[in-house]
Amino acid sequence: MVIELGPEGAKENYFFDNAFNNDEINSELPNLIQGMDKVFYPFGKKDGFDQLVINWMKTAGTKDRHSKAIDIADGSSLIGNLRLIKDSTEIQHMQTAADLASKAHMQAMIRTRPGLYEYHITAEFDTLFRKEDSEHSYPPIVAGGENACILHYNENNKLLNDGELLLIDAGCEILGYASDITRTFPINGKFSEPQKEIYEIVLKAQKSAIASKVGNNIMDPQITSEKIITKGLVELGILKGDVDDLHQQGAFKDFYMHKIGHWLGLDVHDPSEYKENKELIKLEPGMIFTVEPGIYIPDGSNCDERWWGIGIRIEDDILVTKTGPLNLTAKVPSDPKEIEALMA
Ligand code: GLY
Ligand code: MN
Ligand code: MN
């Protein structure tokens, strides 16, 4: 969402020391750079802009022949870490974004039926988000059947078939703050037995991983989810062997090949670090991250055919509080019975 504040509005609302119009950039930047020790600038992010920065630095240098060299550094990780803990206003915006995306996911569950196309459901999200002056926080994934096994699928143009699942990964932005939700549900409103078997494992992994508390490190939910998924796949006979050994060997990666989640904020993948001084960051109140385990079994996988073509991910947005995790996106059902009841 674009918010036009103007230079005065930018100073007032965001507490910048100074703000100028874009057409003043060539005259103002060299003045501001002159005499500084360090310029923070992330090179290579915006086409054509790097050369402008070099020009401004050169101009700044020519203004004062005795000035010392100016260092240049990428400040992204410094700024990224400032974004790690959200204040109460930011949390409010993120809850609003979570609520709107939750409403859209529930509407999609109600409206999905065999014979529609993936783009019909995508359009439900487009419309609802635009009606609330919001927009997608990332390209949505609306993936019927085996398409759910393609992690970054976004063609969103195939037929929705009776008996298959639909995986939707979609979120929106409110005042710049993102939500990021995934739900997987049966296109005809009723889970089949094989679908339920896989779904229950992902749901258990997700719920256990959400139970992270202040003081846990960010990798704890990852390991929790890997262990539960490994155990579940062994119980179904999809993986064979000792659960701990298989976990150590990373055997689950054939079916669960991505990370449990990421920081969430102004960007859907917020750019804060995951380690500080080589140590994993510990969870503190005000941090928000996603918890999104999945199991993906494309056709031809090394297991019984009953599970072929099943791709399931469940994703919620979690705020760490002093008293435990708060699920900002809990309104969208993830329990299979609740999903079936809503779809009925
Ligand atoms: N939708 C992007 C992600 O889940 O990471
Ligand atoms: Mn995510
Ligand atoms: Mn997502």
Please provide a written account of the structure.
The chain has helices spanning 6-14, 25-33, 49-63, 76-82, 88-111, 118-131, 193-210, 220-236, 243-249, 336-343, and strands at residues 38-40, 71-73, 135-136, 141-144, 165-170, 172-174, 177-178, 181-186, 275-276, 279-280, 288-291, 294-297, 310-313, 316-321, 324-327. The strands form six sheets. Strands 3-6-7 form a three-stranded antiparallel β-sheet. The protein has a three-stranded antiparallel β-sheet with strand order 4-5-8. A three-stranded antiparallel β-sheet has the order 11-14-15. The mean pLDDT is 94. The protein is 37% helix and 16% strand. The protein is of the alpha+beta class. The protein has two domains: 6-74, Creatine Amidinohydrolase, Chain A, domain 1 (3-Layer(aba) Sandwich); 85-343, Creatinase/methionine aminopeptidase superfamily (Creatine Amidinohydrolase). α5 (88-111) runs antiparallel to α6, α7 (193-210) packs antiparallel against α8 and α8 crosses α9. The chain binds glycine and manganese (II) ion (2 copies). One manganese (II) ion binds next to loops. Glycine binds next to loops.
Question: What's the SSE blueprint?
Answer:
Blueprint: H1 6-14, H2 25-33, E1 38-40, H3 49-63, E2 71-73, H4 76-82, H5 88-111, H6 118-131, E3 135-136, E4 141-144, E5 165-170, E6 172-174, E7 177-178, E8 181-186, H7 193-210, H8 220-236, H9 243-249, E9 275-276, E10 279-280, E11 288-291, E12 294-297, E13 310-313, E14 316-321, E15 324-327, H10 336-343
Parallel strand pairs: 1-2
Antiparallel strand pairs: 3-6, 4-5, 5-8, 6-7, 9-10, 11-14, 12-13, 14-15
Helix pairs in contact: 2-3, 5-6, 7-8, 8-9
The protein binds glycine (GLY) and manganese (II) ion (2 copies).
Residues 169, 180, 182, 315 line the site of one manganese (II) ion.
